[in-house]
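ok so I'm stuck.
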Amino acid sequence: MVRSLVGKHNKYFEGILQLRNPNQKVVDFVNNDLKNGNIAVSKAEEVKNGVDYYLSDNDYTLALSKRLQQKFGGEVKISSTLHTKIRGKDAYRVTALFRLPSFSKGDLVDYGGDEFIVKAMGKDIVLIGHGKNTKKHHLRYREMSQIKKIDRENVED
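replied:
not stuck anymore, here's the structure
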């Protein structure tokens, strides 16, 4: 998977794509996207709860994180770090964190002590009340830690 750039050393990278809690579909999507985008990957490193990809292009790193969110839902956080100066201009390295939620569209979840069905996961999370609950919520992905998946086997209808 490591592909080098002409004129750059094999450890060169501009951006880091961090996948957290990824399933195999997410990893396969990233690997295919990198292969088709002809982007150099200096390192792909497994970490405690995911994978870090060191990529040769900041813009591509950002775009890939957005494609991940559009396809799988999830939280994206972007940060940048001043790396060096090139011809008097600041050069930054971008880190894009993609965190896949523990639930998916159609799952039964608990939010605020009430049961909901996950109706949509696009730009935000849409929860529709389940059972006697008639509430509807639109939540940002930064709030996904407050949503807990309910095992359907333990649900009494």
